[in-house]
Structures are given as structure tokens and as C-alpha cells.
Amino acid sequence: MDLELADKVAVVTGANKGIGLAVTRALVAEGAYVVAGSLTTDNLDRLDRVIAVPLNLVAADGPGLLVQRAVDEHGRLDVLVNNVGAVRIRTDGFLGTSDEEFDWALNMDFFTTLRATRAALGAMLQHGSGSIVNVASVNSFSQPDAATVDYGVAKAAVVNLSKSLAQEFGSQGIRVNCVSPGQVSTDLWLGEHGVAATIGRATGVDADTVRATAVASIATGRFTTPEEVASLITMLASQRLANVTGVNYVIDGGLIKTT
Q1: Is position 249 annotated as part of the catalytic site?
Q2: What is the rounded distance in angstroms from the CA atom of residue 123 to the CA atom of residue 119?
Q3: Which of 5, 32, 75, 178 is the least buried, fewest Cβ under 10 Å from its Cβ?
Q4: What is the mean pLDDT of the chain?
């Protein structure tokens, strides 16, 4: 299926690894130009049709600078994928999670999305079209727990913002959707300082045991791959789904039992 993304201009945040890198590659495979932002860009520097921009997206001006680079280089912006984010496992629960830690999560997981979206909307409204896809999480709505309390709050804010913007700007040709992954085989879960390792250290078990316990609760018996999440995001970016907006799509291998 032709997703009609040839020569479209996309911005991807947090693009150097994991889901962001997979999204960048998927968009390029569909013929899009990508302006990809991340603190480091070693995995992006040699990709065709990609402008890699090393910058701090948590800084107040970071997202705007990335969007402006896309407009300066290509004269337009068609797609924004807000992927940048991180989680810190709070082993002391809610009462052990300070205001500063909530502030960290909101800046990393919500304000990066808010600022990039605000910057992108100006460029998209000039052309009367655009697709914004925000990476949220199943933690935003289903069985939130104390270990990710600040992350879940921030991602819930992303979902709420997305639905509000979908209503406000839908009549002007802008679509806003979310993708909420469950466990994904990236460093966020499986890295040296990822969820499995952090929980393992806190509970006195090895990371592989934590991972196996997580897998046991997934209907498909495995984590989602970054490429699978990227495929869903790329479809939502496409005008093939031009009347889909304000939706939060879950991709979690059946972890959450939805109807």
C-alpha cells in the first residue's frame, strides 16, 4: 500500500535509537524527508533523506529549534512525531517521589511534546494540513502503579492534550493522534539502567527474571518491537487515515484487555 508520504517533511523527536530511530527509518522508506532531533545523532548521521540535529529537546527552546530547522530546510512541515521521553522507576512509591521528580517527568515526557506541537502547528496551519502523532504509554490510563507514578501522569497529560488539539484544529486540516505502547524491546525496558534492571536491583532478583515476569502477562508472549510501533505511527502519519483523529491506539501484545 502506498502511504502517500513521498516527499512529505517530517520531524521526529528522540530519534537516535529505539522507537524514534525505527520511525525515522520507516518514514524514509516511504519516501519522506525527516528532520530528526536527539541529544546524540550517531545512528542518524549517515541515513539518506535525514537531517540529524543534535540538541537538547528538554530545553525550553529545543523543540522549537528543531521544527524551525525543518521549515528552513524544506519550507514546510507535514508530520510531527513526538517520541522523546524517559522513565525513572520510583522504588519508594508516591510518598518517596518529590516535586522535583514530578517536574523532571513532566519536562521530559509532556513539555517536550507540548512545545514541539506548538511550534509545528504554526507551520502546518499555513498549509492547511498536518499529522501529529504523540507517543504516550499504557501507563497513561491502565493500572498505573507507584513505580511509574510521575511518568504515568505525564503521559496521561499527553493523551489529554492530544484529544483537545484534535478537536480544536480538526476543522483546519490538522490531525492529532496517540500511540500507547506497552513493553517495547528498547533500552527503556531492557537497557543497563532500564526498567527490568532497576526493578531487579530494588527487589534482589536479576533483570532477566523481571523481564520474564513481564512477558508472562502479555498475551502474545513477547515484547513489542520498535519497528511494530513505527509501522503504526507511520500509518497514522499518512493521509490514508485522513479521517482518524483524537484516537489513542494501544500496541501492547494484549497486555491490556480491551474491548
Answers
A1: no
A2: 7
A3: 75
A4: 92
